[in-house]
Every structure is written in structure tokens, then in C-alpha cells.
Amino acid sequence: MKRLAIFLEGKTEQIFIDKFLREFISMQNLAIETVEASGTECPRFTTIISSDNLTNQTKYEVLLFNSCSDRRVISDLVERYENLKNEGYNSFLAIRDLYPEYTYDERDEAKEDSHFFIRDFENTTIIYATMEVETWFIAELNHYPKIDTRLTVENIKNNLINLESMDNFEKDMVEPSKQLNKIYNLVDKHWSKSEKGIVRTVNNLDYENLYYNTREQMPSLNQLITKLDEFFID
Amino acid sequence: MYIESISFERKYFEKNKWEIDNFYLSKINLIAGKNASGKTRILNSISTLIDFLREGNIDSDSLYYSWNIKLIKNKIEYIYDLKIDNSIVLFEELKIDNDIYFSRDKEGKGKIIYESKKDLELDFAIENSKILLANKRDKIQHLLLEPIFNWINSFYLFEFGDSLGQGHRYDIRNNIPNNDKQVVYKFKKGLDKFGDKFKNRIIETFNGIGYGIEDIYIKDIVYQVYALYIKENSEEISQREISQGMFRVLSLVVQITYLEFSSKKNITILIDDIGEGLDFERANNLIKYLVKNAKMQRNKLQLIMTTNDRLVMNNVSLEHWIIVDKDDNGKINFYSEKTHSKIFKKFKRIGLNNFDFFSSEYYKEN
Question: Do B350 and A72 touch (CB under 8 A)?
Fold first, then answer.
């Protein structure tokens, strides 16, 4: 069995990655355990949120570790790396936002700075979901009419922003969460960080589109998918 | 008055020496370092100087000590140099705002400013085993030295890894040494001087750190010998029966509350191994209390703590950190926001625990 641990900074990433994996990996082969950390200081208290059963057919076990804080993701990875490795985890990912500490132009600096702390770790990658993970959702154009039939790309173009002509989503979306909210507001809906709000968007995303098309415009998403492919493709 | 920097050298044998060079301090300091990196020695370098200055004489058989300490009082800079070797003062000098106030050689001869007559310097010859500074307290002739004496007399070293006075009662017939073991004495003195207000503040602070005592008091256990007692869950517990960690916190709270209530203006508190032996929650609360207290009394208190504890490091903002690191050649290097601001700023943006800064040795990166 292969084991992958993914460290995330919040509920949005946790729900999205969970759904993403379940879209592409057969249920029989996949077991996801989701853990949430609480407490801003050491020691961290962890709570198991959900845990799929392990069966004879389980080929991949994935730990989604929600740090519940942007300032804790890499620390949680660093603190737990040895133990998880000893438990048989052979691949590690951490997903972080650049926002608010770094600008888009400082993304290489961010990667270099954080790489220092994992320089001796095997199969470990930190992915910066520039600027926030919502950038990926904004760029997945097929989901808007599912949120509301009136929310067409045409409507968004006429009233707010031409998403089809964006040269560089990652650069131009400075505050993606606010931008996504503005788009939803066009039809009196909101992007909210509540579990219900996140699930609504995540469930309406077109995962094939994300996998085959959206990633082409989005180096950070492309990096994530490439890393997941490396792990899941035998 | 507070210490801005200190350089110190001590030779044990001809070739065996330990030194720190230009160790800079702020008002609140957490000295973080691995075991044997020199944290405690740094505190001792300061407290040994204080001991000598309180004593006024050199009766040490140590081979060699040398200090250069910079003190600041209301923007006035005092630089004091003292070198001693084999019970003799080799050199002693005080500069106030770059002007030499006194200077003496190993014969004990030198010159000192006479304040009441402007620009007058007097010759002197002092025994070569005596420290001039300690022997020149005089509010008419040497008023400028007063802040230094106040600083010397308001200096406290707490060795948190030690018992902090758990085995010490207060015997009224004995002289009271000015050290961190005199908790019963300080409590009695505080109670006599400030009454229930003093006691209630101790209970409030102590319980705020995570304990639950109902009362604290002293009892005359043998004629004129006092011991400390607490009441917890309606049960009386003597100081000997209190758990070690709990007593350390109680002792620290009593002694710091005493300082808070007293009108001293220049308090320097050194705490070695802060939080040692405490659980997470209490260590966390104790640190918060100390830092908050130090911030509130910024103009009169300098706090210098040492640790190698992860929980403590995670609970003290990096702005207060000084990392002590011994390199392969035995040289002691320091890293603080003052000396290495770029790397501190860079680290803060990455979003990690403070402890990761220390454990990864990121501070050494250029």
C-alpha cells in the first residue's frame, strides 16, 4: 500500500482535495483519513474528522492533515515527517497560499525560503497555490452555471471580468477569495468559507476540466496534479 | 538603567578560556540555545559581576575575569570595564557618555572626577584587591554613580531549574542573602509592607497561570522561623509538600510581585531555564505573564530569560529572541533581530513555528 500525507491550511483545501481524489481514484482503492489540528501553539491537538475503512483492496492511503492555520502548515509537516515516514508514508505534500505574506512576484522566494526546512526530506513538495486556492476555482469556468444558471461566463464578462481572456490567472487574481465572492454576488450569491459554502462550490467544479484544461493556465494546479499523478500512477 | 551590551572573558587555565564579545540585549530577552551553548554562562557572567560589585573586594582565586558592560540610563551611556586576575584588579574604568569618569591601574592608582567641583579630577590610590566603583558611593561627590548602585541593588537571578527556595525557611535571626531562595522572607516582608493587596495579587496571578489556590500565608513553625503554606481544595499544604514545578512558579510569582509592589526603579530579572519542569499550559501562561509584566514595566524592568524548551520558544515572539550558537571552534555567536534583522524578517514570512527557526538553524542562512 502506498501512503501519501497532504498538509493543508484550511477547510477549503481539505474539502477540495478530498473531492478531487475521489473523482479520479476508484473508491475501492482509496482510503482517506482527515485530521484537523487545533490550538495555535504547541502542542497541537489533533482530531480525526473522518476515516475510510482499510480493506484488502486499498492501494492508496491518504492522510489529509488540516493545519487550520496558514502559519502552521509547514511546521506541522516538519514536526510529523519522521513519525509518518516510520509509519510507512512515502510521499508528502504541503499546500500553502502566497497571500498575505508574499506577492505573486515573490513566489520563487517563497518556495526557496520554505524549501530550506524540507531540504533533507524525501519525496516532499510544498506547493504554493498562488495567491489562494480560490484561484483554481475561479479559473474553472464550467462550474458557474451550476452555482446559478444566470451565472454564465458571458454575464460575468459583461458585468465584472472577462475570464476567458485572462492571460495569467495566478498573477492577476491578487485576492482570489474576494474576486470569487464578487462573481457570485452578480447573482446575489456569496462565496463563503463555511463548510456548506465550500461544499457547494467544490461539488459543482468540473474535475475533468480542471484536470485537462484549467491546469494548463495554472502552474500551481499543474504542479499539484503532476505530483498526484506521480503518486497514483503505478 | 538597563544593560545594552556585555563582553566577558574568563580564563580557567592558561589556555582554557570562555568569552562573549558584544552580546547585545533589549528590554525583553529570550536567550535560546542548545545544551552547553553558553546560555547559563552568559547569565552567570552578569551575575558574577554583580556579586563582585556588591562585595567590593576580590577574593576569588580564579585566574582571570574581564568585563566590558554598557549600561543605559535615560539615554546616558555608562561603559564600565573591569579586569581582575588572582585577587588583584588589573584595570578598572568607567566612561559616562564617552568621558572618563574614573580609571585605575593594577597598582590601584588613578584619577576620578569630583562632581561638585567642575572639571576637577582627583588622584587616588586604592588597595589593589578593592573594586573602586563599589567603594565610591557618595551622593555629593559622585551623584552620577547612583543609577549604577540602584541597578546593582535591584538585580535578581532566578534559577528556574533549581528549587527556588523550596527548602529554605525564613529564620529571623539570620542574615538574609539577596538571592532567589528567599521566597518566605520576601512574602513576609511584602505582607507586612503592603498587606492583603499583596497577597491577593499573588493568588490572582498564580491562579491565572493555571493553579487553584484559595490562600497563601506563613506560619511561625519554630520560634521565629517561618515557612510558607498554601490552601488548595480547603487543604493546607506546606512549602515542602508543594510539588516542585508548582513551587517554582509560586516562588517566582511571590518574588516578582514583591518587586512590582516595591518602588524600585531599575529592576533586572534574569531567569535561567524558564518553564523547566512545567506542563505546556502553565509554562505558556507563565511566559505570557512575564512578558506582559515586562512590557507594562518597560521603563523600569529588563527581563533576560534562557531556554532550550520548544514550548517556551513557540510562545515568545521572535523580536525578543537571542540565539546563542557555539561554532566548531568554540566561538559563541549571537543572532537577534538587532544583529540579523534580514534573516529574522525572512523567516517570519514563511509561516512556521518559532521553534523551527531554532531547530533548523535557519538563522545561520545568509
Answer: no
